[in-house]
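User: Need the bound-state model for beta-D-glucopyranose:
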Amino acid sequence: MSETITFADQQADRIVAAMSNEEKVDLLSGFGMWKTAGIPAYGIKPIVMTDGTYGVRYSIPQIDSDERGGMDLDAFLSVVNQRASDVAIAWGEMKPATCFPNGSAMGNSWDEALMRRLGTLLGKECRAMGVHLLLGPGINLRRTPLAGRSYEYYSEDPLLTGKLAAAVIEGVQSQGVGTSLKHFACNNSEVERTTMDSVVEERALREIYLKGFEIAIKQSRPWTIMSSYNRLNGVQASQDPWLLDQVLRKDWDFEGVVVSDWHGIKDRPVSLVAGGDLDMPESPRRKADLLAALNSGSVPAEVADLSCRRLLDLIERCNKGAEAPVPLYTPKEHHAEARSMAAASMVLVRNEGSLPILPEMREILVVGRDAGTPVIQGSGCATTIPTMVDQPLDELQQALGPDHSLTFRPEADAETLMLAAKADLVLVFTSTEGAYDGEGSDRTTLALGPGQDEMIASLAAVSDKVAVVIACPDAVEMPWIDAVNAVLVTFYSGQAMGGAVADVLTGKVNPSGKLSVTFPKRLADVPGFLHYPGENGRHVYGEGIHVGYRAYDLREIEPLFPFGHGLSYTRFAYSDLKLSNSEIGLDDEITVSFTIANTGERAGAEVAQLYLQAPGKRLKRSPQELKGFSKTLLQPGERRRVEIAIKGSDLAIWDPALGRWVLESVNARLVIAASSRDPRLVTDLTLKPSVLPFRRLAYDTQPAYVLPNEIACEHICAYLVARCNISSEDAMRMLDHCSNSFFGIFTSLERRLRLSIPEAEVAGLIADINAAMDTAEARL
Ligand code: BGC
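Assistant: Bound-state model below.
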C-alpha cells in the first residue's frame, strides 16, 4: 500500500468540524469546469484537473481566463464532442501537448516499463502546465470493436488492461500528479451513454469488467477513481453503493476519492451516500440539492464529513506534488519518446516478404491520403493539440534516402494502377472513417473508410507486392487480406506516427507489438453481437465471462487475427518450460520459467503469453485465460530465461453462490504461447481446491446432486437410521433408491419410502449439511 499523505489528522478533523454545510458542499462539488473550490479560511487551495489518457488537454479559456472555467454546458460539450479532425480549430484555445499513441495503440506494446514511461512523461507535462490531477487512464474493456471510445482503452483482456493501467498510474503519480482511473464501470459503448443499463452477471463483473480496475487499484493506488455515466444492473453507476462502497472500498481497500464523470450524477444526495465524493463539474442545482439534504439531515453529516476528509487528503497530495521543481523537457524530446512508443506498439499482422523495405526495392509507390495527413488520434475529451505532427511520406523519404524513389498518389486511379503494376513495392496508407465516431458515438461498421477496401483490392489485383498500413481505433475487417503481401496496423499512434511507421517499414525498428484484442473476420463474430447495443435502455451482456478471445475459443470461431498475434522480422524459439511447483492452491504462488531464443538475424522483442487452460467443474470456464506475459528484447542468437510469477488467487473464479473467489479441484494446463492461437510450450498444473465440488443443499436439490456429496449423504443417512430404526447400509440403499428421481431429495424420499419428514427437521438437516460443508471447505 502506498504511503498516505494527509493534512495532519487532527488538523483535517478540525477543519471538517469547523466547516459549515455550505462550505462542505463547495468542497464536494467542484468549482467551475476543471477545478475544486479553494476555501482560503481553512488554507484549502483549489486543484486543477484535466483530460486525458494519452496527452494533456489544457483548455486555456476554461482553466486560465475565466476563474470558474465555464459553467455552461456548451463549453463542456465543445470538449467531449471535439472531433480529431477539428484540432486546427481549437489551436490557440488549448495548450499544445505531446499527443502520445492512444490507448488502443499502446495496449499492443504489452510493455509495462513503456507504460510507466508514458505515465512519467504525462506527469511531467501536467506539472509543466500546473495540472494536479490527470483524468485517466480509461480502461473500460473493449467488449465490442464498435465502441466509440475503444481508441482510449487498452484491451479486451482484464489482466493486460489492469497491468498496463497500473504502470501508467505509477508513472504519472511518480511525478506528484494524481490520476483518475475511469470509467467505473461497464461503460463499454457510447449508445445512450448516460442512461444505458449495462446488465451484467456478477461473475462476469468480478472476473472480467471489474478485474482490470481491481488489479490497477491494488497495484498502483490511483488517487482517484471516476465513476461512469451508465447504469449497472439497474443502478446509476455514480450512485451505486455496491460498486462504490462494497466493491471499491470494502473489498479492494480503495482509500482515494471517487470523482463523478462530468454531469454523470443524477441525484447528488444519493450519490454522496453511495460513496461518490466529488461531483464534477460544478452544478448549482446539484449543489442546492446536497445542501438541502445536509440541512434536513436526510444525508447524515458523517457521510459528508468522510468525503470532505478524503478531499482534503487529495488536495494535500496534489499540493505536495506541486511543490517539487517543475521538470524540464523540450517538446522535441517528448516527440522522440512518442515515436519510439508508437514503433513499439504497431502490429505487423501479415508479412509474406514485402517488409522490411530492402535496398533493392527502389521504385516505391505510396498510395492514400493518410500518407500525407495521417490520423493520429481519436475524437472526444481525450483529443490533444499536438506539439508537432510527423508526415509518414516525408519520414519515409528521409529514412530511405535518395536510392529509393517514392511516388505518391492520393488515390488509386487508372494511372496509379499502371504504376502499381511496375513498382517494387506498393505501400497503401488507409484508415477508418473518422468523421463521426469517437466519444459519444460508436462506429457503425468494421470496414475501412469509404472506398478504401476497394482501393486496396484494385491495387492487389495488379501487384503482389502490396503492403497496407492501417490507422484505426480498434479492429477492422480486411476482406482483401489474402490478396495483399503485408499489413501493418498502427491504430492511432499519436503525433509521431509518421516517424514510427517509417522506422518499422524500413526495419530500423523491428515490430514487436501484438494485438491486445481479437480481430474478427466479420462483425457478426464479435461475442457481444447478439445483444449489442441493447434495447429499451437495457444492454444485456449475454456472453457473460466469455469476452474477446475467450468466446472465439469457446465457439471455435476462426478470427481474422487472434488475440496476442503479431509478427517480427526475426524468429523466436521457446523451450524448457519449468514450474517451481506443479500444484497451486488459492494462497500459493509459483514461478513459471522458460527460455526464449532469438534464432533470426535481427534484434527483436518477443511478447510471450501465459495462458491457463482449466476445465470448469461446477462453474464453467473459458477454454483459456491470460494469466501473465512478458516482453523480452533479444539480440540475434541471444537466449534468455523468462520468469513469470503467478498466484493461486489469480487463477481463481468468482462463485456467485458463495460470494467469494474459489479454486475448483481440476487438472489444468499452463501454456506459453506466442499468441492465443500459437501455443509453444505446455505443462500440467494441478489446482488444489478451496471448495467442495458440490452446491450447497436446498429443499429441492435433486438426488443426482446429493448422492455424490458424502457430507450430505452421511447426514441424511444418520437421520434415516434414527428416524426409521434401520442400519446405515439400509439407509444408504434408501437414498440410492431415489437416484433416478428428478424431484427434490426430500420429496423423493417421502414419496418413494412413504415417509413424512416434518418441515423443521428438513430445515435442520439442510442447515447442518451446509454448515458441515462450510467447515470442510475451511479445512481445505
Ligand atoms: C468523459 C470523461 C472525461 C470528462 C471530462 C466526460 O464526458 O466521459 O472521460 O474525463 O468528460 O472531460
